[in-house]
């Protein structure tokens, strides 16, 4: 059993493999110490010495951390285990698999998307500046250029841009997960080009209301968009 001198490790000694325990301790250290991307956690030899374990346990811990997108190994002189920025795609994929396994249906997913993005839309409509308006319109222009795309899922994510401009990083992450899941999984239509045109028109309405500072109208446009996507049988796309 792995016994660390550090108190944070004590609660971990009764469960999991040795490598798993070390991985959890390193993850704890990254979070508590605020280590940013590129921080050198230590070489393999340093980690072996620091944790008082063998090479197999340290290598298992490294594999776990790399799989979680928390660290990577740099080879050569001065190398070792480095902190990495977590891959947001891992979060999205994990959330999608969990929600599918849990049997979350279309209506539930869109209901949560609407609730969260309404917070971002309301906040942004009351605070947006010229630079923010330009950013939103730039995304709309890119979206407009994609209107002949066969795969409408490739459109830039205007909802993520709204969340980023609203300045709440938690909202940003959750909205990214929800919009990508909602659109990619449930936003299909028999005519992708028609769908792209329809979606772009709804996004223009939403963005212009935000830029005008009209939070209630922006929220209304968002509600209409999500309700129509959530109810494809009742959907009228022209």
Automatic annotation (TrEMBL):
Domain HTH gntR-type: residue ranges: 16-86
Keywords: DNA-binding, Transcription, Transcription regulation
Lineage top rank: taxon: Bacteria
Annotated InterPro entries: GntR_C, TF_FadR/GntR_C, Tscrpt_reg_HTH_GntR, WH-like_DNA-bd_sf, WH_DNA-bd_sf
GO terms, molecular function: DNA binding; DNA-binding transcription factor activity
PANTHER family: GLUCONATE OPERON TRANSCRIPTIONAL REPRESSOR, TRANSCRIPTIONAL REGULATOR, GNTR FAMILY
Name listed for the protein in its UniProt record: FadR family transcriptional regulator
Species the sequence originates in: Mycolicibacterium hodleri
């Amino acid at each position: 059993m792995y016994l660390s001198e550090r108190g944070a490790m004590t609660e971990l000694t009764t469960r999991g493999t040795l490598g798993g325990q070390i991985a959890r301790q390193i993850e704890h250290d990254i979070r508590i110490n605020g280590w940013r991307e590129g921080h050198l956690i230590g070489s393999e030899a340093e980690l072996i010495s620091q944790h008082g374990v063998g090479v197999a346990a340290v290598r298992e811990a490294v594999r776990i951390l790399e799989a979680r997108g928390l660290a990577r190994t740099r080879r050569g002189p001065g190398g070792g285990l480095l902190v990495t920025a977590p891959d947001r795609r891992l979060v999205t994929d994990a959330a999608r698999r969990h929600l599918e396994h849990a049997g979350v249906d279309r209506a539930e997913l869109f209901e949560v998307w609407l609730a969260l993005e309404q917070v971002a839309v309301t906040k942004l409509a009351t605070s947006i500046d010229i630079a923010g308006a330009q950013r939103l319109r730039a995304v709309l222009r890119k979206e407009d250029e994609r209107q002949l795309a066969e795969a409408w899922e490739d459109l830039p994510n205007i909802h993520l841009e709204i969340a980023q401009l609203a300045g709440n990083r938690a909202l940003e992450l959750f909205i990214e997960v929800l919009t990508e899941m909602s659109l990619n999984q449930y936003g299909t239509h028999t005519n992708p080009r028609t769908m792209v045109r329809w979606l772009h028109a709804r996004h223009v309405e939403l963005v212009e209301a935000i830029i005008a500072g009209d939070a209630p109208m922006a929220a209304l446009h968002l509600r209409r968009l999500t309700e129509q996507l959530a109810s494809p049988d009742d959907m009228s796309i022209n």
